[in-house]
Design brief:
By secondary structure, the protein is an alpha+beta fold. It has 2 domains: 8-167 and 341-348, 3-Layer(aba) Sandwich (Aminopeptidase); 174-319, Aminopeptidase (3-Layer(aba) Sandwich). It is built from 12 helices and 16 strands. The strands form 2 sheets. Strands 4, 5, 6, 7, 8, 9, 10, 11, 12, 13, 14, 15 and 16 form a 13-stranded mixed sheet that branches. α3 packs antiparallel against α11. The radius of gyration is 22 Å and the shape is elongated.
Length: 358
């Protein structure tokens, strides 16, 4: 479906596109989308995304509220597509339209088959037609139909600039724990065996925690923060005890508790939490978020054993892929697949003109 001159009109807050198929584009709000089964979350799970978890409201809205809450949010949707953007005025570059989570750029603001048309229509609305914003797009899979559609739709009136891509690492959970370990190196497997033997007899227990209410989420998060305070990250004031990360992960866990998607495991010794690992599931994918352990237990490879316990739990739930997030050296040993997504800046050739993407 192409946006051509004269094919749309605005009235009563709705945009009608007249084509072979009638489409109604709606103006939603964050409040209407901020729940587990929202349209945004359903579409995020049903479209081909490199990082479906980070396309969801639990990630996007928690980022907005803690990192950059003063931006204006824009949502437009049809029955099977939605776009989610934030807008602000940059002191040097003027109007900016960007993904709601614009720090790591893990998620994609274009969800569903009509998402590019929705963005084109948004840019024709009176406000954006007047200011002609720079547009930042993230999470686009190289060679995907979505990326190609973006390029062909906006190439005439925008300079399309390729920014530094985002790289994430993933691992297949095919074959359960044994299958996962069989795809690791002999040295990796030997280190896990040695760590397990070293911990044997220390009476360390691994407790699974699935928060299903705000109260349970807050209780679990307080335990996680206590572990973090005792870790090297907490001691160095560089972990999730520091704002805005503290509020970001707390809000995320609250939202995950309402969808039942949060997964936390604690390592415990004599009733004391000495480690944790935390993330969330989306369909067949698990997205890791944080793990930590008390510094006085650092010689026992608690972090590695928590990872194995998490993989064991995920395999029992028939999760097929473990997304470890941003590429970091240590993750190479845990992952077998590297995903690169494209981040693009659309810079209008001439600001102030009434532009119609082709």
């Amino acid at each position: 479906m192409q946006l051509n001159p004269g094919e749309y009109n605005c009235r009563e807050g709705q945009l009608e596109l007249q084509n072979d198929t009638y489409k109604m584009f709606r103006f939603l709000t964050k409040e209407r989308l901020d729940h587990a089964n929202s349209l945004m979350n359903r579409i995020a799970g049903n479209t081909e995304q490199a990082d479906p978890f980070c396309c969801r409201t639990e990630w996007q809205f928690s980022f907005h509220e803690t990192f950059n809450p003063h931006r204006d949010l824009y949502f437009r949707n049809s029955d099977d597509s939605i776009i989610a953007f934030a807008s602000y005025e940059h002191p040097d570059h003027g109007s900016i339209l960007e993904p709601i989570e614009s720090n790591w750029c893990f998620g994609c603001p274009l969800l569903g088959p009509d998402a590019v048309e929705l963005l084109a229509a948004l840019l024709q609305e009176e406000h954006f037609c007047h200011v002609q914003p720079f547009v930042l797009l993230s999470g686009l899979i190289l060679g995907s139909p979505l990326l190609m559609k973006v390029l062909t739709t906006f190439k005439k009136h925008y300079e399309i600039i390729r920014l530094e891509p985002s790289v994430t690492q993933c691992a297949s959970l095919s074959g359960n724990v044994d299958g996962y370990l069989s795809r690791r190196s002999a040295k990796f497997r030997r280190n896990i065996r040695q760590a397990s033997l070293q911990l044997a007899g220390k009476d360390v227990l691994f407790e699974r925690c699935l928060p299903l209410s705000i109260e349970q989420a807050d209780e679990a998060y307080a335990r996680m923060l206590a572990v973090e305070e005792a870790s090297w990250k907490g001691i160095g004031q560089c972990g999730m005890t520091v704002q805005p990360s503290r509020d970001f992960y707390g809000l995320m866990l609250r939202r995950l508790s309402l969808s039942g998607m949060g997964r936390v495991i604690f390592a415990k010794k004599d009733g004391r939490d000495i480690g944790f690992i935390f993330g969330g599931v989306t369909g067949q994918y698990y997205r890791g978020q944080q793990f930590s352990y008390a510094e006085d237990w650092s010689s026992y490879s608690i972090g590695s054993l928590l990872q194995i316990e998490k993989i064991r739990w995920l395999c029992e739930e028939c999760i097929s892929r473990y997304d470890l997030g941003q590429a970091i050296d240590y993750k190479v040993h845990w992952a077998e697949l590297e995903l690169q997504t494209e981040n693009l800046l659309l810079r209008p050739h001439k600001r102030g003109r009434h532009l119609r993407p082709q």
